[in-house]
Amino acid sequence: MKKTDNQMLVIFGASGDLTARKLIPGLFNLHLAGHLPKNFVVLGASRSDLSDDDFRDRVVHKSPYLKDKIKDAGDAKTKAFANKLYYEDLGKDYDTDYGDLRKRVEELKDKHDTSGNIIYYLSTPPTLYETVAKNLADAEMNTQNHGWKRLIVEKPFGYSLETAKNLNKGLHRFFEEHQIYRIDHYLGKETVQNLLVTRFANSIFEPLWNRNYIHHVEITNAESVGVEKRGGYYDKSGALRDMFQNHLLQLVSLVVMEPPIGDDAEEIRNEKVKALKSLRVMKDEQTLYDNTIRAQYVASEIKGEKVKGYREEEGVDPNSTTETYAAIKFYVDNWRWHGIPFYVRTAKRMPTKVTEIVIHFKEPHHQIFQESGMHRDNKLVIRIQPDEGILIKFGVKVPGQGFKVERANMDFYYSSLAETYVMEAYERLLLDAMQGDATLYARADEVEAAWEFVDPILNYWKSGKDVRMYGYAAGVWGPENADDLIDDRGMWRNPGENLADDPGYCVIC
Ligand SMILES: NC(=O)C1=CN([C@@H]2O[C@H](COP(=O)(O)OP(=O)(O)OC[C@H]3O[C@@H](n4cnc5c(N)ncnc54)[C@H](OP(=O)(O)O)[C@@H]3O)[C@@H](O)[C@H]2O)C=CC1
Ligand SMILES: O=C1O[C@H](COP(=O)(O)O)[C@@H](O)[C@H](O)[C@H]1O
């Protein structure tokens, strides 16, 4: 068990949705599990006029996100947690003198003996990240003289390669790279971390994990919801920035990377950066045309209920060309992956919520047996969510005369480890930052390498030149044309819609 120093967490943008929905519940779980250090306080800061008690009511006692947990935890434990929370009103602007904030931090440090160790969490709109870092530096709140200082930065990290580079430069003026923790909540998911273990703690997968045995790799991230109340934000972002540049390229890097020499944060991140740098950047228009597909959901009915189209959503421009679906085919230019296509798609308003990685192996060179069904290949399905687990599809003999072969499943579900408590992503990531472990946080060069790959696609889509924007009915698996991306061996693997209801459907088959 790693050591967690006494410390303070200062959250900027503490009146916002993320604080209430993810950060405080994550901290509450850590409190209940006994993972918070003995001396620990949270200081929320934003422009809203709130007292300490207002803040506690808002994010704990009256929080819809903690209602059930509070029932289970009981009053005493809840109160003990709430008493660790404080609030400081920043006045009208984040771009202000942080003298008062500093005074409050000093006061709380002395009162709770938090030893001067501080994490600053930037949960504000991204336009304020650098401003807050600068004002912290101006108030000398970034100095490491009396305890360490860390800075957690929320997504999105930049809007393009250029803005990401500028943000890195801007933050590096006030904090050193080892102090900066760029969050990507997919890295906090247990199943995502398990990818490393699956690959590098077993000897059965790694020998096959290359161009000699793998035919193609497919990654799907599907959400059944639309843009909900985030239309304003989403319309300026789109699926490629919102999910692909960060979360999905993180998954890609874990699939593609070479074995690190150890489990040290830098060793692992060095390999991930190399992996991202080896993605073949699409430069010419024909390649971009042939290998990228974007689409928007249009109004439809799902299970008898009318569902709005993307352009009718609140906060979305009625003529918007922002994609809610993106499918990209690409290659990885290195020894291991030469010539192997990767197909990655992400979308909202799909039939179900699912994220999975499918490794499609090559078929046996020589077919000896008769096989039912069209697929003779082995597949390794890594289910990130829901029904987290791993499945291998392989051929077995159909009982009876002769040698008929059918595909069977061998599966593992995380839920079978029932007694093991699985931390929520934010909970895990917060604890790691508290312990100074940056393994599951993105490094500056990693983020920039991901943008290097994504930028030309965004620019091409923005150019509008011959760029297709397909529509798909909310509740279907995207535009049919997306199947055209996949070459000689079929189509996207669309996991069944009613995972639980369909008796013939095995959850990850
Ligand atoms: N919510 C989520 O699920 C996720 C959020 N994020 C990221 O986390 C950060 C915070 O997100 P979230 O909490 O949802 O955002 P919200 O808009 O709910 O909250 C941000 C807070 O920042 C303050 N703020 C300062 N200036 C502005 C401004 N010009 N417009 C709006 N708010 C302002 C507001 O507090 P006040 O007015 O009191 O100062 C507000 O409470 C963002 O960068 C977002 O991209 C990332 C992943 C998921
Ligand atoms: O970062 C984001 O992620 C969520 C999906 O997260 P998940 O953990 O539920 O898979 C997505 O809905 C949101 O648009 C995006 O900003």
Notable characteristics:
carbohydrate metabolism, alpha/beta, disordered C terminus, 18 strands, 509 residues, binds the ligand O=C1O[C@H](COP(=O)(O)O)[C@@H](O)[C@H](O)[C@H]1O, binds NADPH dihydro-nicotinamide-adenine-dinucleotide phosphate, G6P_DH_C, G6P_DH
What does this structure look like?
- The chain has helices spanning 17-32, 52-61, 67-73, 75-82, 99-112, 129-138, 161-172, 190-200, 231-237, 239-256, 265-277, 285-291, 425-434, 444-463, and strands at residues 7-12, 40-46, 85-89, 118-122, 149-153, 180-182, 214-222, 292-298, 300-302, 305-307, 325-330, 342-347, 354-361, 370-371, 379-385, 389-397, 404-413, 469-473.
- It has 509 residues and is of the alpha/beta class.
- Strands 14-17-16-15-13-7-12-11-8-18 form a ten-stranded mixed sheet. The protein has a six-stranded parallel sheet with strand order 3-2-1-4-5-6.
- The longest helix is centred in the C-terminal third of the chain and has 20 residues, at 444-463.
- Residues 223, 242-243 line the site of ligand LXAUTJHC.
- GO terms for molecular function: glucose-6-phosphate dehydrogenase activity.
- NADP(+) binds at residues 47, 155.
- Its EC number is 1.1.1.49.
Question: What is this structure's SSE topology?
Answer:
Blueprint: E1 7-12, H1 17-32, E2 40-46, H2 52-61, H3 67-73, H4 75-82, E3 85-89, H5 99-112, E4 118-122, H6 129-138, E5 149-153, H7 161-172, E6 180-182, H8 190-200, E7 214-222, H9 231-237, H10 239-256, H11 265-277, H12 285-291, E8 292-298, E9 300-302, E10 305-307, E11 325-330, E12 342-347, E13 354-361, E14 370-371, E15 379-385, E16 389-397, E17 404-413, H13 425-434, H14 444-463, E18 469-473
Parallel strand pairs: 1-2, 1-4, 2-3, 4-5, 5-6, 7-12, 8-18, 14-17
Antiparallel strand pairs: 7-13, 8-11, 9-10, 11-12, 13-15, 15-16, 16-17
